[in-house]
Amino acid sequence: MGNMRVNRVAEQMKKEVSDIIAHKIKDPRVGFVTVTDVEVTGDLQQATVFISVLGDEEQKEASLVGLEKAKGFIRSEVGKRIRLRKTPELFFAFDESIQYGNRIDELLMKLKKSEQE
Fold first, then answer.
1. pLDDT tens digits for 82-111?
2. How far apart are CA 99 and CA 7, in angstroms?
3. Is 86 helix (H, G, I), strand (E, B) or coil?
4. pTM
5. Rounded to whole angstroms, how far apart are CA atoms 93 and 50?
6. CA–CA distance, 105 with 13 (Å, rounded to integer)
């Protein structure tokens, strides 16, 4: 039962953080950032926000720095939007699963092409 609440909080946080980044953050370093997932600990004290950034490595790092600077603002906005006793502490991390999936897709295409030849 508690696990269902953690999942609901994580999904709501994903929605809210995504909206905050898209509409409230004015930092020019934060470019095309997409929130792909949020993992919340069982005690709802910490949340890891997984992001995907469109651009090269330099733009990705700049976006991460911008998000780290805006972490307090994002946390306070989440606290206003979601009614929790204590707003979880936010951590940002890159979501590598998209790149991993693209790499697998590329390898499968090569394999299929080599089988046809």
1. 988 899 999 999 888 777 888 898 888 988
2. 25
3. coil
4. 0.81
5. 5
6. 30
